Please model this.
Amino acid sequence: MNEQEWKDVNPQTADLPDKGRAVILCIVGGIAFGIVGFVGMKIRPVGLAVGIFALMTGISMFIRKNRKVNAKTAALITAAGFLILLANPRFGFAAGIAGTFIIIGAIGLVALGLVKAIKLSWDLGKKY
Model:
Protein backbone atom coordinates (compact mmCIF):
# COMPACT_ATOMS: atom_id res chain seq x y z
CA MET A 1 0.00 0.00 0.00
CA ASN A 2 1.26 3.45 -0.84
CA GLU A 3 1.89 5.50 2.32
CA GLN A 4 1.50 8.83 0.56
CA GLU A 5 -2.30 8.51 0.26
CA TRP A 6 -3.13 9.50 3.82
CA LYS A 7 -0.92 12.56 3.99
CA ASP A 8 -2.51 15.98 3.86
CA VAL A 9 -1.96 17.58 0.47
CA ASN A 10 -2.89 21.06 1.70
CA PRO A 11 0.06 22.57 3.62
CA GLN A 12 -2.22 25.19 5.21
CA THR A 13 -4.01 22.50 7.24
CA ALA A 14 -0.86 20.71 8.45
CA ASP A 15 -1.04 22.29 11.93
CA LEU A 16 -4.74 21.59 12.53
CA PRO A 17 -4.18 18.55 14.79
CA ASP A 18 -1.95 20.63 17.08
CA LYS A 19 -4.52 23.44 17.27
CA GLY A 20 -7.32 20.98 17.96
CA ARG A 21 -5.27 19.30 20.67
CA ALA A 22 -4.66 22.68 22.31
CA VAL A 23 -8.40 23.39 22.33
CA ILE A 24 -9.18 20.06 23.98
CA LEU A 25 -6.37 20.39 26.51
CA CYS A 26 -7.50 23.86 27.59
CA ILE A 27 -11.14 22.90 28.04
CA VAL A 28 -10.53 19.55 29.73
CA GLY A 29 -7.69 20.97 31.84
CA GLY A 30 -9.91 23.81 33.06
CA ILE A 31 -12.72 21.43 33.99
CA ALA A 32 -10.32 19.04 35.73
CA PHE A 33 -8.59 21.90 37.58
CA GLY A 34 -11.95 23.19 38.78
CA ILE A 35 -13.16 19.79 39.96
CA VAL A 36 -9.89 18.85 41.67
CA GLY A 37 -9.63 22.29 43.26
CA PHE A 38 -13.21 22.20 44.55
CA VAL A 39 -12.93 18.65 45.90
CA GLY A 40 -9.53 19.48 47.37
CA MET A 41 -10.94 22.48 49.21
CA LYS A 42 -13.89 20.51 50.60
CA ILE A 43 -12.19 17.22 51.55
CA ARG A 44 -8.90 17.92 53.32
CA PRO A 45 -7.07 14.57 52.88
CA VAL A 46 -7.85 14.53 49.17
CA GLY A 47 -6.76 18.15 48.85
CA LEU A 48 -3.46 17.48 50.60
CA ALA A 49 -2.74 14.41 48.48
CA VAL A 50 -3.65 16.10 45.19
CA GLY A 51 -1.84 19.31 46.09
CA ILE A 52 1.38 17.54 47.08
CA PHE A 53 1.22 15.32 43.98
CA ALA A 54 0.66 18.28 41.62
CA LEU A 55 3.34 20.38 43.29
CA MET A 56 5.94 17.60 43.18
CA THR A 57 5.01 16.71 39.58
CA GLY A 58 5.43 20.32 38.50
CA ILE A 59 8.76 20.70 40.26
CA SER A 60 10.04 17.43 38.79
CA MET A 61 9.03 18.64 35.33
CA PHE A 62 11.28 21.67 35.83
CA ILE A 63 14.19 19.60 37.15
CA ARG A 64 14.17 16.98 34.38
CA LYS A 65 17.06 16.98 31.99
CA ASN A 66 14.79 15.95 29.13
CA ARG A 67 13.41 19.25 27.84
CA LYS A 68 10.45 17.85 25.92
CA VAL A 69 8.21 19.26 28.64
CA ASN A 70 6.79 22.70 28.03
CA ALA A 71 7.80 25.22 30.73
CA LYS A 72 4.33 26.79 30.69
CA THR A 73 2.73 23.43 31.47
CA ALA A 74 5.18 22.77 34.30
CA ALA A 75 4.55 26.23 35.78
CA LEU A 76 0.78 25.75 35.57
CA ILE A 77 0.91 22.37 37.31
CA THR A 78 3.24 23.70 40.02
CA ALA A 79 1.02 26.73 40.64
CA ALA A 80 -2.10 24.56 40.74
CA GLY A 81 -0.56 22.25 43.34
CA PHE A 82 0.58 25.21 45.43
CA LEU A 83 -2.86 26.83 45.29
CA ILE A 84 -4.62 23.60 46.25
CA LEU A 85 -2.24 23.17 49.19
CA LEU A 86 -2.72 26.80 50.23
CA ALA A 87 -6.51 26.57 50.01
CA ASN A 88 -6.73 23.30 51.90
CA PRO A 89 -5.86 24.14 55.54
CA ARG A 90 -8.03 27.27 55.36
CA PHE A 91 -5.59 29.75 56.83
CA GLY A 92 -8.03 32.65 56.82
CA PHE A 93 -7.43 35.25 54.15
CA ALA A 94 -4.79 33.29 52.18
CA ALA A 95 -7.11 30.30 51.73
CA GLY A 96 -9.84 32.54 50.37
CA ILE A 97 -7.48 34.12 47.86
CA ALA A 98 -6.15 30.69 46.81
CA GLY A 99 -9.68 29.38 46.32
CA THR A 100 -10.54 32.43 44.25
CA PHE A 101 -7.48 31.90 42.05
CA ILE A 102 -8.43 28.24 41.56
CA ILE A 103 -11.90 29.25 40.38
CA ILE A 104 -10.57 32.05 38.16
CA GLY A 105 -7.91 29.72 36.71
CA ALA A 106 -10.43 26.99 35.91
CA ILE A 107 -12.85 29.41 34.26
CA GLY A 108 -9.96 31.10 32.43
CA LEU A 109 -8.70 27.81 30.98
CA VAL A 110 -12.17 26.84 29.75
CA ALA A 111 -12.66 30.32 28.27
CA LEU A 112 -9.26 30.15 26.57
CA GLY A 113 -10.20 26.78 25.08
CA LEU A 114 -13.47 28.18 23.76
CA VAL A 115 -11.69 31.19 22.24
CA LYS A 116 -9.17 28.86 20.59
CA ALA A 117 -12.02 26.71 19.28
CA ILE A 118 -13.76 29.73 17.77
CA LYS A 119 -10.49 30.91 16.22
CA LEU A 120 -9.84 27.43 14.83
CA SER A 121 -13.30 27.22 13.29
CA TRP A 122 -12.84 30.73 11.85
CA ASP A 123 -9.52 29.70 10.30
CA LEU A 124 -11.09 26.54 8.89
CA GLY A 125 -13.88 28.60 7.36
CA LYS A 126 -11.36 30.80 5.59
CA LYS A 127 -9.37 27.87 4.19
CA TYR A 128 -12.27 25.95 2.64
About this structure: The CA atoms of residues 9 and 69 lie 30 Å apart. The chain is about 75% helix and 0% strand.
